[in-house]
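Homework-ish question, so no full write-ups if that breaks the rules, but can someone show me the predicted structure for this set?
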Amino acid sequence: MTHEANNLSCAGFQALLPELIGRGEDVAAHPHILGCARCRALLADLETIAEAARQLLPVVEPPDDLWEQIESAIRNEDGCSQSK
Amino acid sequence: MVGSVAEAEDLTQEVFLQLHRKIATFRGDSAFSTWLHRLAINVVLMHLRRKGLSMISLDEAMEPVPDESPGRSFGAADLTQAGAIDRLTLEGAIAHLPAGYRLIFVLHDIEGYEHNEIASMLECSIGNSKSQLHKARLKLRDTLRTYPRLEGLR
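A: Not a homework solution, just the prediction itself:
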């Protein structure tokens, strides 16, 4: 981290945040975060939201007859287009 | 993404129908999985548009918009406290995101796709994907901090 990074304003730091997070950097160790409670709280909230989202992936199995319905719909469509 | 198992099943069927209609147009410019995913996303967005749900188009979602500063809600809830974000509240807040933000948030934070994969699927830059994900998270943060137990979200 450079000396300049330490002197970033909150707006300047937050403008960099999508890229820093997206690159997988250790944002918590960024000099601005170490000296700014407001941005530290923002980062903590964003990490909490991302962590909570990871628990959301629902495991929903499609019903047994879904594929039959799809095959039937495709057959119907083929039938319609051939009869034209 | 659509919030209903029945709708998801209907859309699954529609995706396969579209696949059947359009498979001949696949030219191999991208991986088949990317092409299929893009087709599925378009089916979902068309469906949401027909329903008139709060949404912005994919193109709009990918447009740079002026940065919003994080909200300053005094006395806002501390999201980092254990149990501050329950599943239903988070699902409700996600459902209220504009569709473009919701799509990227679901793909990245819920389904676990990387930014480069999302960029391929949505035909946008990796930087755009990062930026839109960040804005989606900021919007969720504002919603969750202001209305941590808002019944109206459910």
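Now go work out the reasoning yourself. Hint: The mean pLDDT of chain B is 79.
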